[in-house]
Amino acid sequence: MIRYLLPALALALFFLEPVFGLFSPLQLDGVYYYIVPRFLLMYLIFVTVYYDAKRAMIYGLFFGLLYDVFFIDIIGLYSFLYPLMCLIASYIVKSVQRNLVVATLLTLVLTALFEFMLYLFFSAISLAALPAEAFFISRLLPTMIANSVFLVMLGWAFKLIIDARLIERENSKA
Amino acid sequence: MSRFLSNKRLILLLLGVILLVALISYSLRDRDNVNFAERLIKDTVGAGQSLFSGPAHFVTGIFDNVDSLLNTYKENQHLKGRLEEFATVQAEVTDLRSENEQLKEIVGKEADLRDYNPVQATVIARNPDQWEEKIILNRGSSDGVEPDMAVMTAKGLIGKVSLVTKTTSTVELISTQNPNYRVSAMVLGGAEGVFGLIEGYDAERRELLLKRIDAQIELEVGQQVVSSGLGGIFPKGLIIGEITEVTIDEFGLTKLAYVKPSADFTLLNHVMIADRAMPDGDEAEAVEEEGS
Asked: Residue B170 CA to chain centroid, in angstroms?
């Protein structure tokens, strides 16, 4: 049963992202802060680190494609960036220790990188006219704070589920 | 060379990048039409998304209720002040309305740019990455929604429909940075309406730009801006906002006004799609050219 839990969780996170997106932008003292939920990306990186990079990249391709078609109508953006982030994570994880703190830090760094690459892309096609400084303050910073709160709260749960799946796979092999 | 070719991963990566660039340029070029596969994905994901957004709206509804409960006293004071004014305005409106109808009957004019059938819709998702200002509604072509229709809340215009599938429609909000996004608008007040185009959005001031106003015309801060009904299939008279500042545009030939939108773009929940009653004919095509 746990076999289906991994993709099911990815699907649930995919649907939850826009729901949390409805709360953004936040207005504090007349300044607007954009919070972009990146639950799925963080989950995919966790799957890369603890389970299987190839599997994570396939999920990334699939959900990236859904994201592209449903939300942004530019096909190939997320479906490329999601697997790319998983690929980078799989290379980095080979040379570092695998524990929860390292995984969390790695995930956050990659999420920030992901945001920055999107910023560059949308600036390039001139859909966004935002100076880099404003991007860091109004977007990247609040996004990273919110996402790190989410990850610190639920990172261990991701790991728990992935571990359960690993154990199940070992048992079925034996 | 043979060693290079034997590196399967590198080749795959290169192929992937080529495919990616091709796909991106394809979808950037042809963004008004969605093909069958895209439509299928949009409808399926939209159905799933509705399951999740329902409970979310319920929760935000509770927060809204608590919030308005806390403001009750202040609001009540304010409303009491407006109440007397309201009665006279109400009487005037009924009077004018009946007079308008009588006059229309005399002239024999039936269709009006102002008439529209509202289609109620619920926001099922907002583009979570928020680079493009887009929301997705749970009504589509099967409910009579068509591209370019006006979308509004009770407070005013918020955007127009950009893509339609069978059960969902994508709305590009008026606060977009898209340079091809235009709404034909009109300033109320004075003997005749002053026409201009809502073109562009100042993200820092969070105000719309009303451009191409004749330089001879005097505008005042506080005047209301509504849709003019000349832009394709928008009905006439949807409230857009209020003028906050009038300047000369960058070429010095026409005037430019900053318009504070009357609708709130955050926490959108229920919206209305305006299906104009009057059929759009040649006139709509002519304006569409201007819009593309």
From this structure: 11
